[in-house]
Design goal:
The protein is an alpha/beta fold and 210 residues long. The protein has a single domain, classed as Ribonuclease Z/Hydroxyacylglutathione hydrolase-like (Metallo-beta-lactamase, Chain A, 4-Layer Sandwich). 24% of the residues lie in helices and 35% in strands. The chain contains seven helices and 14 strands. The strands form three sheets. It has a six-stranded mixed β-sheet. A six-stranded mixed β-sheet has the order 7-8-9-10-13-14. Strands 11-12 form a two-stranded antiparallel ribbon. Helix 1 packs across helix 3. The protein is globular and about 50 Å long.
């Protein structure tokens, strides 16, 4: 059996919250092999994601959180592929802002492992950017998918509704910076980094307050 591989697709669209709208580029992560895959964050463009999946079976669409730019294409992609949409229940109020008539199919729970194509994605509940934000850690791949919780250069934004800076700091300190330093951090937007590259800067982030 071949080891799972990680593919990155960048899609573009808009993020809307609290009456504001911003143009954004999102990372869509596809994890799997030649036969089956998992999509992490179905952002903006169901057609482009479906094309990247190709003729492989899409087992699950995992939402790292329910801001619209991470979930807007999820129902359409699920409809096309039959995949299950997974979301942490604490983010249902945010989900309903974008998809009032379509619930997620399954609830993510802290510590749960979602498997496909040899990948074992362990759910880490990391609130702060959003109440139901999660990261997905696969020790075998040496990778953590952090959504908008941790970026190259610091925590995700906490200046809007449903977010809280002290909470995201606790999540990063207790759930992420405890991972092996060589762990690759694959983010919801922008460039990748490693736990070891970010860990020394925690006190700077606390001091600056974002």
């Amino acid at each position: 059996m071949t080891a799972p591989r990680i593919e990155r697709l960048v899609t573009s669209g808009q993020f809307t919250l609290d009456g504001g709208t911003w143009d954004v580029d999102n990372n869509v992560w596809i994890v799997g092999d030649d036969h089956e895959v998992i999509v992490i964050d179905a952002a903006h463009d169901a057609d482009a994601i479906a094309e990247a999946v190709g003729d492989r079976t899409l087992r699950a669409i995992i939402c790292t959180h329910a801001h619209n730019d991470h979930i807007d294409a999820a129902p359409a992609l699920a409809e096309r592929t039959g995949a299950t949409i997974w979301l942490h229940p604490d983010d249902l109020p945010l989900w309903k802002q974008t998809h009032p008539d379509r619930d997620p199919d399954a609830h993510l729970l802290d510590g749960q492992v979602i498997e496909a194509a040899g990948a074992d994605l362990r759910v880490l509940h990391t609130p702060g950017h959003a109440p139901g934000a999660v990261c997905l850690y696969d020790p075998g791949l040496g990778t953590v998918f952090t959504g908008d919780t941790l970026f190259k250069g610091g925590p995700g934004a906490t200046g809007r509704s449903f977010s809280h800076f002290p909470t995201i700091i606790d999540s990063i300190r207790d759930r992420l910076l405890t991972l092996p330093s060589e762990t690759e951090v694959l983010t919801g937007h922008g460039d990748s980094t490693t736990i070891g590259a970010e860990a020394p800067h925690l006190e700077e982030w606390i001091a600056r307050g974002h």
